[in-house]
Specification:
Blueprint: H1 2-10, E1 45-47, E2 50-54, H2 55-61, E3 65-69, E4 74-79, E5 82-87, E6 92-95, E7 98-101, E8 107-109, E9 112-116, H3 117-123, E10 128-130, E11 136-139, E12 155-158, H4 172-187, H5 191-202, H6 211-229, H7 234-254, H8 258-279, H9 282-301, H10 305-321, H11 325-345, H12 352-373, H13 376-389, H14 399-415, H15 422-440, H16 449-470, H17 473-487, H18 496-512
Parallel strand pairs: 11-12
Antiparallel strand pairs: 1-2, 2-9, 3-4, 4-5, 5-6, 6-7, 8-9, 10-11
């Protein structure tokens, strides 16, 4: 479990091990009055332990207009400005242009569409509350009349004259299921959907009722916004991430949970480093160093070598950013030593993905080591490690990891030295462009704008380097195209440092023409 945990930390979508044994203190729900009927004859159905609701009558009761597309076996819905589309036997639903994931796909029973009740519960209720009798109440925005609820273990979906009682209690176990579902969405890179689910859960719990769960959600909300900051609105999203990490840390400290607090400290330091890179605020780097150092002490004391190793690597980067290259190199060498110890213990037969992660980490260390020492042997080692990672991380199996390694290899070859013959550097620069182009097949402008801009910037630098070898004016034109593509993302107001850097490169390139 430790190996999996540290790998998830690395990609900023951590899932903590939290024991769900807290007791929920929920207010009693007492609802009484008018009779409410479901306007259909199809009862809810339980299949393989999953409760399904008849889709059309439930959605129409909640104010939706639906139409059936027989060609695609799809249902499209509209309610005011809201839009919905589901496809039978597919687990991805589109709601208001957002992709949502179902545990099980919608199905057809007796020519009627049925959908998992959990989807209705989580997406179309105004509020979900816990009752003292373990009843689950979902009240729509346009409910008419009151509802009578008796007994235990009911789900009640109410709105425009509908009531369904299903033996599926909404209990502490259901909270656990909801958290796990949100964590899963975060782990498969759906941060926005995960945030929506975490917010729904927070409607039902408080930090006083379930402090550990609350802290877990705060940390993972931070992780979700951290991921979003790599896609768009970097400063805004990373500031949100920092606020959630700080809240999680307060709760873990209050409950004397040092282990989980050290992980939050690591995440918080990483977020501050991103903020510093965005704004140029070195005070954030200095604060990040303090947090990395504190987390590192805990990881080392707990013999958590992987967490300790990763923290030392990030400390090396942080010290380098404030100009303390001696401490930076010291941390980098510690990181290399511990990664070597871990690599000696494992073989690719045990866990190919983990082994690829180790090789990629070595590649990062050696590439960063070259920046410290300018020792070209580090570049050769870095290339070898990245190539080893690609034996597992293919474009089909791990597309994002594959694209990141392709970009890193481009950086390595762009830095490769020339020998006595100029053909060597020409070849290396051409290879670098090839790696960048491979990365851009996945890091597109629409899906990954910041990665796209970063690669376009490096491509521009590569074309300028080629011009210095070949003196071909067309290469400068290509460089300018790349730099201007980067500026489509790096706007002056949002990414001032990136904008300034690219603008300076444009001026240099234009002067070379």
């Amino acid at each position: 479990m430790e190996k999996r945990l540290i790998y998830i930390i690395f990609i900023l979508s951590i899932v903590l091990n939290i024991p769900y044994h807290s007791q929920v203190k929920a207010e009693n729900i007492v609802i009484s009055a008018a009779e409410i009927k479901l306007n259909c004859n199809e009862p809810p159905k339980k299949i393989n332990g999953v409760w399904y609701l008849p889709f059309r009558p439930v959605m129409e009761a909640l104010g939706w207009e639906l139409c059936w597309d027989p060609t695609r076996k799809a249902i499209k819905g509209k309610r005011n400005d809201e839009k919905l589309e589901i496809e039978i036997e597919k687990t991805i639903i589109t709601l208001n242009d957002k992709k949502l994931s179902l545990d099980v796909p919608p199905i057809i029973i007796n020519s009627k569409a049925y959908i998992q009740s959990k989807f209705i519960v989580e997406q179309f209720g105004k509020k979900v509350r816990l009752g003292s009798k373990k009843n689950q109440i979902i009240v729509s925005d346009n409910i008419s009349g009151n509802i009578n609820v008796s007994g235990e273990g009911n789900i009640v979906v109410a709105g425009n004259g509908i009531i369904l009682n299903i033996v599926e209690p909404y209990s502490i176990e259901t909270i656990c299921d909801m958290v796990e579902d949100a964590d899963r969405l975060l782990g498969i890179n759906y941060p926005s959907d995960a945030i929506t689910k975490y917010e729904d859960i927070l409607d039902n719990i408080s930090k006083n009722d379930m402090p550990e769960t609350y802290a877990h959600i705060m940390n993972n909300m931070g992780n979700a916004y951290n991921i979003l900051s790599t896609i768009s609105n970097r400063k805004e999203n990373i500031l949100k991430a920092i606020s959630f990490y700080e809240e999680a840390g307060k709760e873990y400290i209050k409950n004397n949970n040092i282990d989980d607090d050290s992980i939050v400290l690591y995440n918080l330091a990483t977020a501050r480093s991103i903020l510093a890179e965005t704004t140029g605020d070195l005070s954030q780097i200095k604060q990040a160093i303090d947090e990395y150092e504190e987390a590192s002490k805990v990881f080392q004391a707990r013999k958590n070598d992987m967490n300790y190793t990763l923290t030392q690597y990030n400390l090396a980067k942080a010290y380098s950013n404030i100009g303390d290259r001696d401490k930076g190199l010291q941390c980098l060498l510690i990181s290399e030593k511990f990664y070597s110890a871990v690599a000696d213990e494992d073989t690719i037969d045990k866990d190919q993905n983990y082994y690829a992660y180790i090789h990629n980490s070595f590649g990062n260390i050696y590439r960063f080591g070259w920046e410290f020492t300018k020792d070209d042997n580090y570049l050769k080692k870095s290339e070898r490690e990245y190539e080893a990672a690609l034996k597992t991380w293919t474009s089909e199996s791990f597309p994002l990891e594959f694209a990141r390694v392709q970009k890193n290899l481009g950086d390595v070859y762009q830095s490769m030295p020339a020998d006595e013959k100029k053909e060597n550097i020409e070849s290396n620069l051409s290879i670098a462009l090839g790696f960048y182009n491979e990365a851009l097949k996945i890091y597109t402008l629409n899906k990954f704008p910041l990665d796209y801009a970063d690669i376009k910037y490096e491509q521009g630098n590569t074309y300028v380097s080629q011009y210095k070898v070949k003196s071909n004016a067309e290469l400068i034109n290509e460089a300018l195209k790349c730099y201007n593509e980067a500026l489509r993302v790096y706007k002056a107001g949002e990414y001032p440092l990136n904008f300034k850097c690219v603008s300076e490169k444009i001026k240099i390139a234009e002067d070379l023409r």
